Amino acid sequence: MFDYELHRHRRDQLIREADAERLARQARKARTSRARGRGSAGDAGEGRVAPDNRSFVRAA
User: Is the dihedral of CA 21, 22, 27, 29 positive or negative?
Assistant: First the structure.
């Protein structure tokens, strides 16, 4: 029974550490996106469109 309690304690500790790291990563991502002028971190996928460099050939 003691081994099981140690296992549960370690598991709970790892879950708390993972939550703290996840929260820190989200905060860091939000801070860097705000510093770049993108607004919220949810809009990180939206941004400037690359200029047309005519990399595609004309169809026949």
Answer: positive
Residue with tokens 């005519």: 54
Q: Kindly report the number of other CB atoms within 10 A of residue 30's CB atom.
A: 16
What whole-number distance in Å separates Cα of residue 24 and Cα of residue 6? Answer: 27
Overall pTM > 0.90:
no
C-alpha span between 16 and 22 (Å, rounded): 10
Using an 8 Å Cβ cutoff, are 48 and 39 in contact?
A: no
Contact status, residue 30 vs residue 42, Cβ threshold 8 Å? no
Q: Is the pLDDT of residue 43 over 70?
A: no
What six digits make up the tokens of 32?
């860097």
